[in-house]
């Protein structure tokens, strides 16, 4: 299971069109999951808060977001989602590839703008609140695209593209600046962290030692442990265990696999250790969590 699989547990209707690079997923915290750990992808992502509140991070900057807020995650940026204490939250996750808006026949300004977004040039505030000026101009086009996605009428792809072009026009006019974005980590450190996150995603199901991951990063073990703690605020082992537990919780809710198999598939060789860590995180045993 991929940690970036946003499909909610009880969602039966597919929002994915394999021929069209625009996907929407209604999600709920904690019903579907309590968190999505640090990750990144090449698609652009919009997180539209419908009800309640939660915590999001973009490039390791954490914010509490509320109903109406929209989180703008540019391609390639590290981000995460976390439940805010015991609060619930309903939100829409919108993922799309910028390639759907750019063709070889596009004018120079259009190509330059989207290449700038993909190339980390310029800055857009990650959280746009409904209280800021021009919010209504921006969100109008997301609401319009959402409405089209309820029915998928003939020509819906044209309409969604039109909505996205209008969305980016408003974003560029009122929110996006062509100055460098605030830096929390240097580009080199951010790139290295992204590689580590990818490595975890691909290898979490097996044993990963500090020696292995440090060697893979061309760091000494002590340098790697300090680097990871400075970037994420937690140790590598703690982060890895937490990542595995999040995957395990998702599998427990979506399959009938025996707990011992789930534990093993998520990198826990010792079932007692898995049960103890799971209860520490979720307050109940894996079997109780599944009920």
UniProtKB/TrEMBL annotation:
* Secretion signal, residue range per the UniProt entry: none
Please name the InterPro entries in this protein's record: AraC-bd, Homeodomain-like_sf, HTH-like, HTH_AraC, HTH_AraC-typ_CS, RmlC-like_jellyroll, Tscrpt_reg_AraC-type_HTH
Q: Which residue ranges does the record assign to the HTH araC/xylS-type domain?
A: 194-291
What is a single Pfam family found in this protein's UniProt entry? HTH_18
One GO MF annotation is: sequence-specific DNA binding
Q: Which domain of life is it from?
A: Bacteria
Keywords (alphabetical) are: DNA-binding, Transcription, Transcription regulation
Q: Does the keyword Membrane apply?
A: no
Protein name stated in the entry: AraC family transcriptional regulator L-rhamnose operon transcriptional activator RhaR
């Amino acid at each position: 299971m991929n940690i970036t699989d946003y499909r909610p547990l009880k969602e039966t209707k597919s929002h994915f069109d394999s021929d069209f690079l625009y996907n929407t997923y209604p999600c709920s915290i904690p019903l579907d999951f309590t968190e999505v750990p640090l990750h990144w992808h090449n698609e652009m992502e919009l997180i539209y808060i419908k009800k309640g509140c939660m915590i999001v991070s973009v490039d390791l900057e954490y914010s509490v977001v509320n109903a109406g807020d929209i989180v703008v995650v540019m391609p390639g940026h590290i981000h995460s989602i976390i439940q805010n204490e015991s609060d619930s939250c309903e939100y829409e996750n919108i993922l799309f590839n910028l390639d759907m808006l750019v063709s070889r026949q596009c004018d120079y300004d259009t190509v330059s703008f989207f290449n700038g977004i993909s190339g980390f040039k310029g800055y857009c505030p990650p959280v746009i609140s409904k209280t800021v000026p021009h919010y209504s101009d921006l969100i109008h086009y997301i609401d319009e695209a959402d409405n089209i996605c309820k029915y998928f009428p003939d020509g819906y792809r044209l309409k969604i593209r039109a909505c996205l072009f209008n969305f980016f026009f408003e974003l560029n006019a009122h929110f996006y600046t062509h100055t460098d974005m605030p830096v929390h980590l240097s580009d080199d450190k951010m790139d290295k962290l992204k590689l580590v996150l990818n490595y975890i995603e691909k290898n979490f199901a097996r044993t990963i030692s500090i020696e292995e991951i440090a060697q893979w990063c061309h760091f000494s073990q002590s340098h790697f442990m300090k680097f990871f703690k400075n970037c994420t605020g937690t140790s590598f082992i703690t982060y890895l265990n937490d990542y595995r537990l999040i995957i395990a919780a998702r599998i427990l809710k979506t399959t009938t696999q025996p707990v011992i198999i789930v534990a093993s598939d998520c990198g826990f060789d010792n079932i007692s250790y898995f049960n103890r860590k799971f209860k520490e995180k979720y307050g109940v045993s894996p079997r109780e969590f599944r009920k």
